[in-house]
UniProtKB/TrEMBL annotation, chains A, B:
EC assignment: 1.-.-.-
Protein name, entry field: LLM class flavin-dependent oxidoreductase
CDD domains: Nitrilotriacetate_monoxgenase
SUPFAM superfamilies: Bacterial luciferase-like (SSF51679)
Originating species: Tenggerimyces flavus
Assigned protein family: Belongs to the NtaA/SnaA/DszA monooxygenase family.
A GO term for molecular function: oxidoreductase activity
Keyword Lyase: no
Pfam families the record matches: Bac_luciferase
Luciferase-like domain segment(s): 29-384
UniProt xrefs under InterPro entries: Diverse_substr_monoxygenases, Luciferase-like_dom, Luciferase-like_sf, NTA_MOA
């Protein structure tokens, strides 16, 4: 029996996911606006035959700018530049359904899909950020449930727009002078609670039909949304048991909605910190943690927990009377994950800051390449993952190390590809190309 | 005395500006979604040392899809791909102030400016299109005056956002662990009639500070807007006298607003159709006009004139009782230009369709390379132009011909550069880099 291959996504972020990575002597602290830095990262990931690279985003300046590289090139712009410098690797960008119009955004993803020859993916987020709301005329963000309701309609409209040109609408008939068959280019005439959009889209159907749809919310609304729409799911899971429960639950939800559970790929995040020996890896991790400025990190933690920074004493555990998840209108699942982690391991605020500094709630794993490969195989073979969202603590070195030392071990174990077999992002993830919902059923009449 | 050099922008559009260009045997009718086609065009323009390439756009599917290649890759995506394939040429994209949010759009142009090393330009349009309105929840487009009022506030907000990071805000101080000086990253706290935006922008200041601001409206509102904000102006002018009047008026308006008139570059459009002899050029033009499908073109003309297609008889002049420009809420100046052209030359509908088929109201000029160079020099030397918006009827051949045959003549006459002397788009156009409006005046205290 052939083992199922893992899917690997490289989640890229300036000098790395560890918040203090920019302070290392090796790091370029201007990496966040340096296109050559990102082209280099993408080429390394493609050399490793990753399924895709991914950039997170929000339409607001997050975090204290003193703390770490802040502000970034808009991800669809970044991915387009990367498309021109690579051949096969998939290109996934976050974009918000709360702070975009579906016509413009559907057009943009279709455009990236065109210029990349079918390698575009969209990580659909509702943007849990009061700061973002204030950049778009609002005083505070819309309620969690309303954001998801809008997201649902947004994706619905987007799919109609991507389908509005049938695949064979363009005739290019020079002799008769008819460029396209207008009966195969459809106004979508969408009228809903949030959007009224006539269409059709102003770009012909793209190579993948739809970009790959990715989702990362883990709240109740988020999981239901993922089960309905997502083809790949990024998730933060700290323990095997939690990851298995999430995996089983999401696959079951998808099946319950009539979808093939295998058409939803689940990729927990992992922040690998590699060393030639276990001790070396741990030393690297400690070096990074020592570079965290605790005052900055406490401000961020306090913001997430909706308390004043002064309520968090560095050498005590979290206060007992934190709000319930139900009261959080922001990143519900991130909130619960952090509080659960702190309570379970009885971490002081200082220890918690160290744990979060590496991966903002994602699982940090330090060890040898063999140990990291074991960790990945263990989760994948025990029903916790179809692959992983690889979040190097330091970039580019952490990605290079992963490609040079971990991926060869995964290949020896027949757990990862040695060459790309497909051309499009959907093909890398083993997902089919959707046909247009407006496609006419052609009836052959025997005559 | 050194002559003033011309500025040349290459206005690119699928198989060319002539609506029937796609029907030529040489043309790739799928060019509109073919990134390699556009990379090739940009490389040709860069070989010719054009100041910039430019793509028009509207968030709606214009025109009858049967008539000509329709739908296109979103221009900021296209320009980003081109940025990666070129070194120096400027990159100008149209984007609408009526159907975008300033936070997202300002971020996107700053991002293109970052990835291109300072080569981004924004052609600011208010989008005269009822079809576009229907893709954004509206039943009809906002009134002309309201669109311009919104555009004014939109540009104001965008400039604040581009300025929100001072140039030296990033300290990258690894030793102390302070990445940026938060006192040099400013919330903009904009509250206006159309927008409420807190800021700051989520990307550091870009190489040009602001992208080059371009404008193309020629209505009264459009001219006042251009005089206030534009650094380059694209305009459709059919006669030397009209072009001179426009040029003089716009420079005077800019001066009246306290601007150096030379900081507004005026570039009339020209559709050159080249031949080794005058007869050959005219033959080429006639070949193209014969390929126009009159029924399609009449639908488009009727739409612009706000009449039913049946009111336009092919072999008669335009009806006498057309609406006044004041009643047009769409492209006012385009409307007036077409009606004036038809009345002045007493053109039948069929003749008018031929004239518009080449350049949609822009000046078509067929002739030898020498004659085209004469035409450009004549306008520039008589106070009608600082340069030209070159709109090849057929692509890529029309652009190649211009680069190989017209540009060398302009160089012989010392009217065009032989090498780029600057790196950024602003430098190509001889425009200064704006400093941030939030820049603190540093006071040196003698001690």
């Amino acid at each position: 029996m052939t083992k199922k291959l893992l899917h690997l996504n490289a989640f890229l972020m300036s000098t790395g996911h560890h918040e203090a990575s920019w302070r290392l002597p090796e790091s370029n602290p201007y990496a966040n606006t340096d296109i050559d830095h990102y082209l280099n990262l993408a080429r390394i990931a493609e050399r490793g035959k990753f399924d895709s690279v991914f950039f997170a985003d929000a339409p607001a300046l997050f975090a204290e700018v003193g703390r770490r590289p802040s502000g970034s090139i808009e991800p669809t712009v970044l991915l387009t530049a990367i498309a021109a410098a690579t051949e096969r690797i998939g290109l996934i960008a976050t974009a918000s359904t709360t702070y975009n119009d579906p016509f413009n955004l559907a057009r943009r993803f279709a455009s990236v899909d065109h210029v990349s020859g079918g390698r575009a993916g969209w990580n659909i987020v509702t943007t849990a950020s009061p700061d973002a709301a204030k950049n778009f005329g609002l005083d505070d963000q819309p309620l969690h449930a309303d954001r998801y309701e809008r997201a649902t309609e947004f994706v619905d409209v987007s799919r109609k727009l991507w389908d509005s040109w049938e695949d064979d609408a363009t005739l290019a008939d020079k002799a008769s002078g008819v460029w396209a068959d207008s009966s195969r280019v459809h106004p979508i005439e969408h009228v809903g609670k949030y959007f009224k959009v006539r269409g059709p889209l102003n770009v012909p159907r793209s190579p993948q039909g739809h970009p790959l749809l990715v989702q990362a919310g883990s709240s109740e609304d988020g999981k239901q949304f993922a089960a309905t729409y997502a083809e790949a799911v990024f998730t933060a899971q700290q323990t095997l048991a939690d990851a298995q429960a999430f995996y089983t639950d999401l696959k079951r939800r998808a099946a319950g909605l009539g979808r093939d559970p295998d058409s939803v790929k689940i990729l927990p995040g992992i922040v690998p910190v590699l060393g030639a020996t276990e001790a070396e890896a741990r030393e690297r991790e400690e070096e990074l943690d020592r570079l965290i400025v605790p005052e900055y990190a406490r401000i961020q933690l306090a913001k997430t927990l909706r308390v004043a920074p002064s309520e968090l004493a560095f050498d005590r555990e979290l206060p007992a009377d934190l709000p319930d998840e139900d009261e959080i209108e922001g990143a519900k699942s991130r909130y619960t994950l952090i509080v659960t982690l702190a309570r379970r391991e009885r971490l002081t605020v200082r220890q918690l800051i160290g744990r979060l500094g590496g991966g903002r709630g994602h699982r940090t794993f330090s060890g040898t390449p063999e140990q990291v490969a074991d960790a990945l195989e263990s989760w994948a073979s025990q029903g916790a993952a179809d692959g992983f969202n690889v979040m190097p603590a330091v970039l580019p070195s952490g990605l290079e190390d992963f490609v040079e030392h971990v991926i060869p071990i995964l290949r020896q174990r027949e757990l990862f590809r040695t060459e790309y077999t497909g051309q499009t992002l959907r093909e890398h993830y083993g997902l089919s190309r959707p046909s247009s919902q407006y496609e006419r059923v052609l009836q052959e009449v025997a005559s």
